[in-house]
Amino acid sequence: MFTALLADDEINILNLLEKLIDWNALNIEVIGKCQSGSEAYQAIISRKPDIVIIDIKMPGLSGLDVVRQIQEEGIFPNFILISGHKQFEYARSAIQYGVENYLVKPINKQELTDNLVQIIHRIEKEQTSKDYKVMLEQQIKTNIALSREQFLKMLYLSPDLSARQPLEEINRQYGFHFVHDHYRVISIKPDTKELFTLPQYQILLKQIYEFITLKLEDYPLVTYGIIEADEIMLLINYASEEDLACSLASIFETLKNKFYSYCYITMGISSTSVNLFQVSFQEARIAIMSRITLGKDRMIDYNGLSRFRLKLNKSHLLDQFGTYIDTLNIAGVEKAISQLLQEISDESVSPVSIFDLFISLIQLLDEHLTDLYNKTEENFTFPRKQYVSQIHNSTSKEELVQSMKHIMIKEITSYEKLQYSKDSRYISLAKQYIYDHIDQNITLNDVAEVLFINPSYFSALFKRETGETFSNYITGMRMKRSKELLKNLQYSIADVSSMVGYQDSKYFSKVFQKTVGIKPSQYRKLYTN
Questions:
Q1: SS3 at position 453
Q2: 427 and which of 174, 195, 463, 465 could share a cystine (Cβ 3.0–4.6 Å)?
Q3: pLDDT tens across 482-519, in order?
Q4: pTM for the structure as a whole
Q5: Is residue 271 within 8 Å of residue 302, measured between CB atoms?
Q6: What whole-number distance in Å separates Cα of residue 342 and Cα of residue 398?
Q7: What secondary structure letter does DSSP report for 58?
């Protein structure tokens, strides 16, 4: 069995860590919980756990201090560092100590489990390896690759990053080979010619990434990349614009020829930066987004996008769609989407503004449907990530609009079907209640109260589902039952009247004659002789 030590200065976090995971299922025993760095340090020294989950920033001895001091003691447990979003710069310095497992608060159960499983596999591999030296060298290479990836993701996710480090220090820490020249970000987006599943698309991305990484070795560029948000993002360090232009043109043509059978390739290019920390991944993504106006299967330079000056007025469009969703007005949605296509067809409208609107519409649909489903007490899971990916993968304004139309109609229709099914259940329950209580004075309000729904809504629903009013249905059911009872001579007409909910037998006879066409006594004679 493996052993784990938990350390965080917040007792609630410690308790969460202990309860969040099925430790026995992972064959792990939690041997201690510590609320300070110094306490964790002493526990690691004395108990030598296999795994240490520790908050990176605690008063006094920090999590990083614990990592450093423990390794100076010649003890090398597997650390999982926990921190807030804003502490990445602080956290990444632990990479030089071989720490590769890192979680951001709030802690996600699946991510923590995945990290623990990864560590267990690593420990098992180390324990069974016959060549520890080779394994250790491979681990160093893996750590360097992971550290580089984390650094690039930090640049990608934090465009407003204020921290700075000397280039030489960055190269040393992360195994980069950057020089003091120019930087650009290149985004590569494949748009498949046929429908790909998500796993198939991820495989395609990986194949393109591996291919281009290998090809880039032949060019005078220093290049490192990541796969992020369905795109390949490359950070390129180069000496001259001429070298870059020639290299990218050659690489782009090679990519197009290699993967022509599967997809169209669009390459987005950011503006130039002379500072590594001011390079813009976002500009490269904006260039990719612009393919809905400029077309796919081409190179798009961010510097040439100044023509897109108009921005959409989101608020009135969101209000309009929100009303149509709440009222389940599919015709209104279709009309609004057709109008939207006309509005975004202007060549000067910013593609970023268009994507922003459509992502907001996905969020709006999620929020309004969630409210509707909450009223029904039905479980509802909205595939927002899938739909956002579908929007980002649209290659034209027409495709973007069709995708949104399909998504909205599909989700609204699903809710309508559920509501219709539920309405039908209401009517079935109402009919059963009427059948079981036909001998009583049943009112519409009585049945609505039993079903826990509004009487006015129930009245309209009953008419819509059955084609007749509630009172007419009750009368029809009573007459139907009375006909059956009249055939049994042991019941008097007064008995039958009472048994179908009429206390006044004369009134019953009057209603029977009006409905059936003859008096109850005549009906009895007719069907018992």
A1: coil
A2: 465
A3: 998 998 899 999 999 999 999 999 999 999 999 999 99
A4: 0.56
A5: yes
A6: 10
A7: -
